[in-house]
Amino acid sequence: MAPVARTLYVLVGLTALLVGLVAAKNLYVGLKMNVTPLSRMNWDNVITKGRPRLVSIVHFYRSNDGQSEQFSADYKTVSLDLDGIYKFAAVDCDENYELCEKEGVTKFPTVRVYPPLPVPPFDHEGELSAKAVTNVAARYVLSNVITVTSANVDTFISDSPAVPKVLLFTDKKVAPLIFKALSKSFEKKLFFGLVNKEEETLMKRYGVKTTPQIVVIKANEKKPLLYTGEIKYQAIFDFLNVHSETFVAGGGSSQDSAATKAWLTEIVPELEGKSGKDICFGVENVLCVILVSDGKPDKEYIETLKEAHKLFDRKIDRGTKYNFMWVDRTKEAEFANIFGLESVPNIAILNPGRRKRFVIHPGSVTLDSLKDTFDKISGGDMRFTNLKGDLPSLKLR
């Protein structure tokens, strides 16, 4: 080969190599993205340290793999929309081959999801699109959100009073990804609760007219704070962060709240040793509406009590409150027998205050019949029977 030709060949080869290297280096360079380029220098700081609570997604690529350039454009866009929910990162394996070898990556491109520990990382299989990857990763997003209903809201709000509460009113039954991620970001600073719009009492109580609506409740504020910005992670984060700087951290998270107790998330829980104090005996200004049955009551009776709860749930924070529950006479015979019931299912209404007394519902277990009894109690027309001494202890189960 002539010297000139040889020189041209070398220059063309070097040019092609340089173009390939520049393309690889520039794949994730720019302002319009939230993708972190990784190397051995920052891997532990970005990925390893985040494993206890974050879901990280890493795109391993080479400049000539034939798919990464197209995928990267989609990946960048999604990183802007979902930043905060996931940690988005990428590794150029032409430049960082030792890191890729250490991670056992041999196929390019590889998109790997790193869930919170102890779940092991896994490679995404199937359609190579950012949406497909994030849809799979969604199941691993951790959450401190608990369901709040009219049955447990008072406990949720009063528990750890120094910690502000964040409520999301929504038409969904489960928390959206944004709210889950926020609950982890503000762990030990805020408690997060999800309220379904069917909880009409709570909608009225907090002045919520449409959903979705985020409400912040602080002990030193007379009125709740309503968020009016975009339903996007960063916008909500900034709103909560401004307020959280003045909050007193109370430790723990929503999952540590007493409101997570199963019997406080049910409208008609079982009355037994663990639940007794929370739903009846330790509650002030309450009448305990107890459905006594042999075994778990039929669904129709539970539904009747749920309807009664909806109808008679206290709309203002004063006066008598009705708590609805059921007790299994076969397991709590000593307690159930204080009511002297000849047949079950039947309802006893217990005042567990200092002067303990009860009255037996005289009618059938129907909504109309219960309404008549409650009206008579409100009018002072029902005669209660006094109980002497302490109530029999319920069994811990």
Helical coverage, percent range: 25-40%
How much of the sequence lies in strands comes to 15-25%
Give the N-to-C terminal Cα separation.
90 Å
Q: What's the main sheet like?
A: 5 strands, mixed
Order of helices and strands: HEHEHEHEEHEHEHEHEEHHEHEHEEHE
Low-confidence stretches: 3-24
Strand adjacency order, main sheet = 1-3-2-4-5
Large-scale geometry: elongated
Protein structure class: alpha/beta
The Cα radius of gyration reads 30 Å
- Secondary structure tally, helices: 13
- Report the average pLDDT across residues: 86
Total DSSP E strands = 15
What does this structure look like?
The chain is 31% helix and 18% strand. The chain is built from 13 helices and 15 strands. The protein has helices spanning 3-25, 43-46, 68-82, 97-102, 130-137, 153-158, 177-185, 200-205, 233-244, 276-281, 299-312, 333-336, 367-378, and strands at 35-37, 56-61, 87-92, 110-114, 122-123, 146-147, 165-170, 191-196, 213-217, 225-226, 286-293, 321-328, 346-351, 357-360, 385-386. The strands form 3 sheets. The protein has a 5-stranded mixed β-sheet with strand order 1-3-2-4-5. The chain has a 5-stranded mixed β-sheet with strand order 6-8-7-9-10, with no helix packed on it.
Structure at a glance:
With 397 residues, the chain is α/β, with parallel strands linked by helices.
Topology, pairings included?
Blueprint: H1 3-25, E1 35-37, H2 43-46, E2 56-61, H3 68-82, E3 87-92, H4 97-102, E4 110-114, E5 122-123, H5 130-137, E6 146-147, H6 153-158, E7 165-170, H7 177-185, E8 191-196, H8 200-205, E9 213-217, E10 225-226, H9 233-244, H10 276-281, E11 286-293, H11 299-312, E12 321-328, H12 333-336, E13 346-351, E14 357-360, H13 367-378, E15 385-386
Parallel strand pairs: 1-3, 2-3, 6-8, 7-8, 11-12
Antiparallel strand pairs: 2-4, 4-5, 7-9, 9-10, 11-13, 13-14, 14-15
